[in-house]
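Sample pair:
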Amino acid sequence: MAPAVLKSQSKMLVIGASGGSMITTGLASTLINHLWFGKSLKEAIKTPVLFVDTENAVKFEPKFDNGVIKALEALGHNQKPADKFYNVVNAVEKKEGCIWAASDHRKLGEAAGY
């Protein structure tokens, strides 16, 4: 797992992932989609990811943007079909007095609390 706590003046984000070598990919993808592109935690976690394995082959999660796949293929990137993606990201965010939680659908997770 790879827990992280990000804190600013107005919010706090606690995020973590599991999935061996795919942890970094899952966390980076989620953080980029949430913090830079403004997606909700749920949408950021749900966004399909790509992974470059130890053989330098690119693997795409199902439903990944086909335009990106074709563009990388045209550039000569070695691609392999991805059987399964094992990265699982979970996060809790406190923003403007509200707490939001999201759990990864890849592991059939669901955020719950009191």
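The chain has a mean pLDDT of 86.
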